[in-house]
Amino acid sequence: MAANSETVYIKADRNVEVTKAEVTLGDVVTMECANPSVVPKLNTIKLLKFHHTDKKHQNRTTVSILKVIECIHQQFPNMDVQNMGEADFIVTYEEQQTAGGAVHLMKVVGVVIISFIGAAFSIMAFNNDVGTTKMFSQIYELVTGKTNSGFTILELTYCIGLIIGILTFFNHFGKKKFTVDPTPMEVEMRLYENDIQTTLIETYSRKEKELDVGSTNTTGNHRS
């Protein structure tokens, strides 16, 4: 093919969302070539397919840019590919579901009500020096006209709300995850691992113990 000798530049964002199970290169990367007939051919090359398209399975995967280059070279073996974007990127499959006007309006109203109640609770708790029990007693007496005699529906709903909020924030209960997103603990552990790896690399580099071009050091010849 004449396109085999062309140079193509590819660029992928870190997180790409697709709306169909069969994903092609044109769905996830942006490509540019001096030959205008090359890019349309590259856009149709199949990259991957999501076999499970329901909410019970994880419709997300990570792809190395080397996989993209491999797919291009399978069709154009002599194509020169220059990556201008991410080395690895995330592909998420989301089926398009357009909610009705009434459903969308109900969601907006629900978010507004929750936000209003949450803001009001925070302000009242702050003004009462975080005296939640005293504040609940005042609200109960204001609404019902009766003196709080102890445990009321306010304390019960508060406890239930705390449980729901904690489970939603940490995104798992036991070994079960509610969504495919990583939990806050997993995010912090990955950040911690990255910090450790960066520290080790910088430490070996500063002590001139890094194995580099022209270095004759071998593993085990020194103590860290």
UniProtKB/TrEMBL annotation:
Please give one Pfam family short name: SporV_AA
Residues covered by the Stage V sporulation protein AA domain: 6-96
UniProt name for this protein? Stage V sporulation protein AA domain-containing protein
Q: What organism is this sequence from? A: Clostridium scindens (strain ATCC 35704 / DSM 5676 / VPI 13733 / 19)
